[in-house]
Design brief:
Length: 400
């Protein structure tokens, strides 16, 4: 199989986004009750069923008046509360006591906060000028009837669920979750409930990947580990490739028993990249066999974990109907100086502390699962920046 030149992190990510976006089929649609909608991807744009707010609303407790009359004295006609229709019309030098969320009476064009007035019985004094529109949220100002409340292709957050509830979407059309085959390779692997011989290890990657897939909105389909033998790998791949996406773990380095690319070749696979200038995860493979995209993730636990987050997750998003996958990068100030050998983009286990300070976690390389488990983010070191001072801003990838 022809190998391609190593890509930078940015090139590799752009490749994944472009390839999958160009070919991703439109996923099946199902309707779920609103309580089960968070984390799913909206399949049809949901419009606002009416104006929001449907009437001008007071944003404060206070008095509705005509702004032109202030400063001045007013007659208080009565009160209007949230949850009742308004019975009053406000004329010159008249006021209506109003509660937050209540409909602003006709004639009034401002609400003066209760804290800014003097009121005795039915007499109100407003000692200062008041701007027209003050403390009023006009009809339709947050959302006009018929305009999109939430667009198709959005992954629903708790806040979007609130909006869907507000517009009366009791059942929500969402895309089916992509089914993601997880195929671990390696002669050294035993299952979690087995006792490994000293030369064996438990298959932790399948469990990490299944959790990552679930968190990313996919349905994991865990296949049993295969030995480092070509025929066994081919056989298992045949089953894996019937799913929407395939994640292989291990077997993609240059070793004599790294057979994944050879096995994929049996399916006429096209390889878009098989080396990326990153650490961990340098020998990461991305390609397509028939209509199924696959990732050959390097077997070291940190490599598998990071390559899933930075590459495979975007593919899963697109296959699940998300229009614009986003990698959650942000900036934080280093709690201590940081150095690395330039040339590779590094994703190193770190802890983001309160106050947006980031502290790298000492780690013993890509096999250090303990460091991975302690991390709530990854520090992202630029390939052309060897040293950072304490307090300097550095990129980080949220992954908790
Ligand atoms: P490989 O990419 O196949 O060369 O694997 C590199 C290293 O990753 C192996 O030596 C193992 O220590 C580790 N490894 C491979 N597969 C797994 C797995 N499924 N779970 C945990 N560690 C793994
Ligand atoms: Mg291996």
């Amino acid at each position: 199989m022809a190998h391609v030149a190593a890509l930078t992190f940015e090139q590799a990510r752009a490749e994944v986004l472009a390839r999958v976006a160009a070919l991703a089929p439109s996923p099946a649609v199902e309707a779920v009750p609103l309580y089960a909608a968070a984390g799913r991807v909206l399949a049809e744009t949901v419009p606002a069923d009416r104006d929001y707010p449907p009437e001008p609303r007071s944003m404060r407790d206070g008095f509705a008046i005509r702004s032109a009359d202030a400063p001045g004295e007013f007659d208080v006609l009565g009160e209007v509360r949230a949850g009742e229709p308004c019975r009053f019309t406000v004329g010159p030098r008249q006021a209506v006591e109003i509660m937050t969320g209540a409909t602003v009476p006709e004639g009034a064009d401002a609400v003066v906060m209760i804290e800014h007035v003097h009121c005795e019985g039915q007499r109100l004094r407003v000692p200062q000028a008041v701007e027209a529109g003050a403390n009023i949220s006009p009809r339709g100002s947050s959302l006009a009837a018929g305009s999109p409340a939430i667009e198709a292709g959005t992954r629903l957050t708790p806040a979007s669920v609130a909006l869907l509830a507000a517009v009366g979407a009791a059942r929500v059309p969402v895309y089916a979750r992509p089914r993601v085959a997880i195929l671990p390779t390696g002669d050294e692997l035993v299952e979690v409930d087995e006792t490994p011989a000293p030369w064996q290890i438990r298959n932790s990657n399948s469990h990490a990947l299944a959790a990552q897939v679930r968190r990313a909105g996919g349905e994991p389909v865990a296949l049993p580990p295969v030995r480092d033998r070509l025929e066994e790998t081919v056989e298992s791949l045949e089953e894996a490739l019937t799913q929407d996406l395939v994640l292989l773990s291990g077997g993609v380095s240059a070793g004599k028993y790294d057979l994944v690319e050879q096995a994929l070749a049996r399916f006429g696979a096209e390889i878009y990249f098989d080396r990326v200038l990153i650490q961990p995860g340098q020998p990461c493979v991305f390609g397509r066999a028939g209509k199924t995209f696959f990732f050959g993730l390097p077997g070291n636990p940190a490599s598998t974990f990071v390559c899933f987050e930075i590459f495979a997750r975007a593919a899963l998003d697109l296959l699940g109907g998300v229009r614009q996958p986003v990698l959650p990068f942000t900036l934080a100030a280093l709690a201590e100086p940081f150095r690395h050998k330039p040339g590779l983009t590094r994703f190193l286990p770190a802890r983001l502390e309160d106050g947006a300070r980031i502290r790298p976690i000492p780690w013993g390389g890509s096999g250090d699962i303990r460091a991975l488990a302690l991390a709530n983010c990854f520090l992202v070191a630029d390939p052309d920046r060897p040293a950072y001072e304490a307090g300097e801003l550095i990129r980080l990838l949220m992954a908790s």
